[in-house]
Write a structure and sequence with these properties.
Shape: globular
Helix content: over 70%
Number of strands: 0
Strand content: under 5%
Largest sheet: none
Structural class: mainly alpha
Number of helices: 20
Length: 467
């Protein structure tokens, strides 16, 4: 299989299984947030709720694209990593996986809603820092700009969830006069049909959006593993027609030749020069060749230059077309051609998406109860009402959906739990929150990144020494 020696093949399979275990844990750790509201409002029985949520998580992974997945991959210097030995690859991958799995399991055991996104990103950053120090003695290989972008997303999302749910519930109180909407559920009877449908729909929305966002993180993990073990097969999407690369590069060259560098700032001129140089190198590497004609080194050189072009020109095109000396149609054509080239670097095999979908979906149906109890009983001092459940899940689903569209990871756990906290505050103020639970959630939010960063760093060096 793949031309690998038996021992290396077993290590590859071990790493892929570990990534599936992480996503399985993510299922019962994070998706419990989605089903808590329908269970505690008696809209669905627990068994039906977790099956529905698991199925929608499965579908969400397929519908979410791979923007978040590639963000995970691009946190690390892939071009540099593939030049290292198998021992370094194993140390890097296993330090990420073991740290993320251990922290997720620990917080689940104690019933603390903790972000799998924070966990994974912290583990990747820790392993990346350790790898950078190991190879260069510095941390310049870690993609700090991408890490900062993700950090802002993870920081803002729970604050947004809290504030928007609080505001939404206050608005609903003004415009809805039916007191039943704001009442606690009957422990025996189902809620009125229209309320029940609304709550099932919002639960479904959170589950689907969770799959589309969090599922991609597992896809990104598996892609990292495949690139480390099988760089020649997964550096570029070799199933695509390589004959399209040079024509698209030529189109971009012709259109960007119209750009007048004299009207640009120094930073933009550098981007223009860098982008033009990358296009020349792309043409040299790909002209008249198929994927089979390129060596492993040439494949990664082509991947690198495609990445340079994709990074240089979009930022350059942030300027107005008039300032650049081109028209709007030219700008659209450049972006369209860049999109065609991006398809060669940003891809995930169907079997990877299926594997992660199954892991996340099955995980959702198992082990959910600890987190559900925390969400449903321990954030507020009162029983979750219909309006509180629907408001928090509506905000969570929309926040996660927008983040997925932007290609940013977001924490389902923190968005929804902070939303429920906001709904409790909207009802009776801060006194309606259980201080102990809020402190535990906040502490997990603060500690997750540093614990996972330092845990992955330590594991990387330990594994590298052992291997």
């Amino acid at each position: 299989m793949f031309g690998l020696a038996t021992g290396i093949l077993l290590l590859l399979l071990l790493c892929i299984v570990a990534a599936s275990i992480f996503e399985f844990i993510n299922g019962f750790h994070d998706t419990a947030n989605a089903v808590a509201t329908v269970i505690y409002t008696n809209s669905l029985r627990p068994e039906a709720a977790v099956v529905l949520s698991g199925f929608l998580n499965f579908l969400g992974v397929f519908a979410g694209g791979i923007g978040v997945a590639m963000g995970i991959v691009n946190l690390l210097p892939v071009d540099s990593i593939i030049e290292q030995s198998l021992a370094v690859h194993l140390s890097l991958i296993l330090s990420i996986l073991l740290t993320a799995i251990a922290w997720n399991l620990g917080t689940w055991y104690y019933g603390i809603p903790c972000s799998s996104s924070h966990t994974l990103i912290g583990s990747i950053l820790g392993a990346g820092i350790a790898y950078s120090w190991f190879t260069t003695g510095a941390t310049n290989l870690v993609k700090w700009d991408k890490a900062a972008e993700m950090g802002v997303s993870l920081l803002i999302s729970p604050l947004f969830g809290f504030g928007m749910t609080l505001l939404l519930l206050l608005v609903l109180k003004k415009i809805i006069t039916n007191p039943l909407v704001f009442a606690g559920p009957d422990e025996v009877k189902y809620p009125p049909t229209w309320i029940r449908i609304l709550l099932i729909l919002t639960c479904s929305g959170v589950s689907f959006s969770h799959g589309s966002n969090d599922g991609q993180k597992g896809v990104g993990l598996v892609l990292l593993i495949l690139i480390c073990f099988l760089p020649a097969q997964y550096a570029l999407d070799t199933s695509r027609n390589f004959d399209n690369i040079v024509p698209e590069a030529v189109k971009i060259q012709a259109l960007t030749a119209k750009i007048n560098p004299l009207g640009l700032e120094v930073e933009q001129r550098v981007r223009l020069v860098s982008g033009r140089e990358s296009l020349e190198k792309i043409k040299t590497l790909a002209q008249g060749k198929t994927a089979k004609d390129l060596t492993e080194k040439e494949l990664f050189a082509l991947r690198k230059q495609l990445g340079v072009a994709q990074k240089s020109f979009p930022k350059l095109l942030d300027q107005s077309p008039m300032q650049l000396g081109i028209n709007a149609a030219d700008k659209e054509q450049i972006l369209a051609s860049l999109g065609q080239l991006k398809g060669f670097t940003d891809f995930a095999p169907t079997w990877v998406i299926v594997l992660i979908s199954l892991s996340l979906g099955v995980g959702t149906m198992i082990g959910w109860k600890r987190i559900v109890i925390t969400i449903g009983e321990k954030i507020g001092k009162e029983h979750l009402t219909y309006a509180q459940g629907a408001s928090s899940e509506l905000v969570a689903a929309s926040t996660i959906g927008v983040s997925t569209f932007l290609g940013l990871p977001v924490s389902t756990t923190h968005v929804l739990s902070s939303g429920i906290a906001g709904s409790m505050v909207a009802t009776k103020g801060l006194k309606n929150l259980q201080g102990g639970t809020i402190r535990n959630i906040a502490l997990a939010w603060v500690l997750t990144l540093p614990v996972c960063i330092f845990g992955a760093m330590g594991l990387f060096y330990l594994l590298e020494w052992l291997l």
